[in-house]
Amino acid sequence: MMKPALLKRADIDVLIQTLKGQGYRVLGPRLRADAIKLEEIDSAADLPRGIRSEQAPGRYRWVDQGNDRYFDFAHGPDSLKRFLFAPEERLWSITADGQVRVEATQPEVPPTAVIGARPCDVAGARVQDRTFLQGQYSSFTDPYYATRRKGLFVVAVNCVQAGATCFCASMGTGPRAQEGFDLVLTELRDDFLVEAGSPAGEAVAAKLPLRPAAETDLQAAAQGISSAAASQTRHLDTEGLYELLFDNLEHPRWDDVAARCLSCANCVMVCPTCFCHREEDIAALDGTESHHVRRWDACFTLEHGSIHGLRLRPTVRERYRQWLTHKLGAWTRQFGMTGCVGCGRCITWCPTGIDLTEEVAAIRAQPGLTTKKGETA
């Protein structure tokens, strides 16, 4: 594997044009609707240069610092999930023209490169891989996800500044990307430190105007990443999470959070790992064809837990509890890892500022409280 090297900040566009020259559709962070989103870019001029984001529970803002830095913002609402597990896609079609034909629909997705994925996003994609490619039933691979995954080139960016809602350091998913990327950048004073994580990444790096990195450059990168970790004020204690949550299913904290939760599903829509979905058939009015479609869904909606007139989780309390116990507890039994990567998006984009780290801490502080049924949890 190539040694870490330096790319001048002014040459970031060379990376973009190199990827485009190799046939990639290049996506990167852009300012859209007052948020930084991952969208197609033509050049470095499209990147949010000099922008810093301010995040808090239920709050997201960006400010212009007026400098030349490209990646001083914490992530926006987008993650890699949208480009791997599509928000909506057709799985198969049925046509009737004297005979009934069923045809699977494979996604037609051009090779895609994403610049600016954060370490938590890369970790989130690895969690999704376990769900769609490498889970307990690994003999079955979701072909739609697999097609997109195969064509994805990831240029990650290590964080040297953390958002106020980030807690990736406690989850071991950042602020340094460990694996799952093709290239990773760390923004220094005047350069990017470039490291490769795959043969494809090395091949792209070989076309860039790189120069050797000195030990002082490596130290500067490490210091910036360490500062981002140290600045994180939120923390999730993962010790014994499965037992903690499932031993306290009737804890009064579930009622407390339900009183604040709007059941809007913002948290799961921005989550880089949530994979709930629904499938439905959309028939043509003339009865000649029907399309089977998969769409993102959320365990926070009343309909998601409804079957044959029965509502499995009719209250907000039950739906929030289902989400948190699955993501932080049951997920580890299913996939060998927690379903949370500490990105903090669910905190930032919750209209009422519900913080899952606070909810877990509250239960941990007083486990086994008397429940509303008069029993001990």
Tell me the distance between the termini. 52 Å
Q: Tell me about the largest β-sheet.
A: 8 strands, mixed
Could you tell me the strand content as a percent range? Answer: 15-25%
- How helical, in percent, are the residues? 25-40%
Task: Give the strand order, joined by hyphens, for the main sheet.
Answer: 3-2-8-9-10-11-1-12
Mean pLDDT: 91
Quickly list its features:
eight-stranded mixed beta sheet, four-stranded antiparallel beta sheet, 13 helices
Structure description:
With about 375 residues, this protein is α+β, with helices and mostly antiparallel strands. The protein folds into two domains: about 5-230, no CATH class; about 240-365, no CATH class. The protein contains 13 helices and 16 strands. The protein has an eight-stranded mixed sheet. Strands 7-6-14-13 form a four-stranded antiparallel sheet, with no helix packed on it. Strand 6 (about 90-95) and strand 7 (about 100-105) form a beta hairpin. The termini are far apart.
Brief summary:
By secondary structure, the chain is an alpha+beta fold. It has 13 helices and 16 strands. It is globular.
Describe the secondary-structure layout.
Layout: E1 5-8, H1 12-21, E2 25-32, E3 35-40, E4 51-56, E5 59-64, H2 81-84, E6 88-96, E7 100-104, E8 112-117, H3 119-132, H4 143-150, E9 152-157, H5 168-171, E10 183-187, E11 191-196, H6 199-205, E12 211-212, H7 215-230, H8 241-246, H9 253-258, H10 266-270, E13 277-283, E14 289-296, E15 306-307, E16 310-311, H11 316-335, H12 345-348, H13 356-365
Parallel strand pairs: 2-8, 8-9, 9-10
Antiparallel strand pairs: 1-11, 1-12, 2-3, 4-5, 6-7, 6-14, 10-11, 13-14, 15-16
